[in-house]
Amino acid sequence: MSDYKRFVAYLYEYQNQAKGENRGFVRVEARNGTCQMGFQLKVFSLPEGSALNVYGFVRIQESLFGIPIGILHSGRNGIAGRLMTPSVHMGDSSFSLNELGGLIIFGPEDRIYATQWDDIPIHPERFTTDTAILQEPSHSAPASVPQKTEAIHSSSPGNAQASSQPVNASSEPSPSAPQAEAASSASQTTAQPNAASGAVHSTAQPNAASGTAHSTAQLNAASGIVLAAAQTAADTSEEATDNPTEGTSEEELHIASVEAAIPPVMSASPAERWQALLDSSPHIHPFDDDEIGECIKIDLKDLPILRKNGWQVGSNQFLLHGFYNYHHLLMGRLSSGKEDTFVFGVPGIFDVKEQFMAGMFGFSAFKPARNSSETAGVSPFGYWYRPVQ
Asked: For the stretch 215-239, what's the b/e string if a residue is b when 16 or more beta carbons lie within 10 angstroms of its beta carbon?
């Protein structure tokens, strides 16, 4: 387990070489010598089936040296898919996941999406796949860099680390990796290594005006992909968010196995189920008002039992991120309304990045906790929550 890493990083669109809006995220998980990357991008303007080339990059002097990872395809509801590659000698190169500075994705119409976790800005115009840069006398193999900026969270078994802190290379988190070059078809022209000889066709920037034509088959051969399973967003979005066994952590697998062993119970009314929770769970009072009353503390191991009792509480990466950092979850009852309305909450802070991730997993509302800091520049602590039945 010493090589186990997991982290999530945000992907931003780059237009005219400038960083633009957040378009989604990539979840990176490495263990036993294999690195898996799961992508979710809210990009709806590309024709369905458009190809996007994914590269990891290593910073060499002022250049971004590209390492081919694989190909994604746009779907009806955005871009989603998984790519798998060795953690060491990625793309048949001498570089490992620890040495990557981030990922860059090149799509049709000069679309570029990228993420970095070495706290250094990305300049897409400096991207190259020319191996000659590796032979320059001043070149030395890049050292492992601290993982920080774009990464939203990283967690190792039993020990969580906030996204604003650098991630140790030996710890679990590390999912934003390659950023790549876009080629939608064999006629799309980009700079890419030759699959058979490793020679580079072009050192120009990967866009329609530079490089040479290449095919999907060439990229797959050059990158040494173990598995490249690009799927449509419609096929994977539900799995990526609420499937309790989609992640590969021991905690998630344990939850699934426990849930399978719990026999279903007889149906009961929401009020009866809630009263049962009140009688068996520790009470907390995190808020200054009574908008959300009768709050109880929930543990990760309680989720399978809650689901068997009819509560629609799924397990996902955002939920695990909050639990690893604050060691509890929350359920409560809204005081307003004619009927009982219950909420499921994940502890966290209110900032733009966390808001984006919370929204991706259905937690669209935030309520500050009691005595939450109001100091300028300090993100308030509270709970991201959603209705639950």
From this structure: bbebbebbbbbeebebbbbeebbee
| Residues spanned by the domain of 178 | 5-241
Domain identity same for 91 and 223 = yes
Is the pTM value of this prediction over 0.70? no
> Which DSSP symbol is given to 193?
B
**Range 255-260, long-range pairs (CB < 8 A, 24+ positions):** 255/300, 255/301, 255/303, 255/304, 255/315, 256/304, 258/301, 258/304, 259/303, 259/304, 259/307, 259/308
What is the sign of the dihedral through the CA atoms of 247, 249, 252 and 256?
positive
Residues 230 and 259 placed together within one structural domain of the fold: no
pLDDT tens digits, one per residue of 308-362: 888 888 778 888 889 988 999 999 988 765 567 889 999 999 888 888 888 878 8
Q: Which candidate, 126, 54, 44, 49, places its Cα nearest to that of 84? A: 54
Residue 246 in domain? no
Q: What is the largest CA-CA distance in the chain?
A: 74
